[in-house]
Give the backbone structure.
Amino acid sequence: GIGASAAVALAAPGRRLILMARSEDKLRDTQSAVENKGGEAIIAPADLSSREGAEKATESLLDRTNGQLDVLILNAGTSNHTDFINSDLDAIEYELRLNYLSPLVMLRRCLPHMVHQKEGGHVICVGSLASLMPFPGEASYAASKAALLSLLRSLRVELRDQPVKLTMVLPGYTSTAMTENHRSLLPAMSSERVGLAIAKAIADQPRVVIPGLSNRLAARLFQTFPGVSDRMLTRFADVLVPTVAQP
């Protein structure tokens, strides 16, 4: 998905990446792709679906880097793909933990190290365009990504005098394993294109990145005319919003 594509986009001689995900086999595939481009990749299997898992992953990351983090990319995420009134509360809690609470835990642990680094550091959180617009059929997912966006905006103000850069990447509909069962009349962006946008964000250090012109136009519409855009979605959601068929 997006994480693997970002790792490959960042791979280069002299650059060391630490790759974290649940699947060790998939991590090894990404490691090979990074090394084929001349980069160095260390794999560290991790499960971020609990606070304990997020804390353990962060400790492992800090140990492997001796507390020196140049760039931290927080990308893990999941979606229930269920209408809210039919959703399971345990599934929603899992979604919120992975999408919002675990990134929060990792930020809380890593930022104190980054603010004391001579060169500072750069945090990139991968959210979703859904954080700016209604997302019927994915209401709790949209809420979790909106919470992450709000957190990063507040941290940017709190850390205004610190040498840490904070970037939020908001992809639209992207072709990944998470969206393979979605149906939409709109085309999906490739994960490789989002990965390249993340790599470019490390060089440019913008506050927000929305890959794709159509996604940027949609974001502007929903931010400028929320009432109109909400009514439009109410009428045409089946056409405009990628959804999963409900049983």
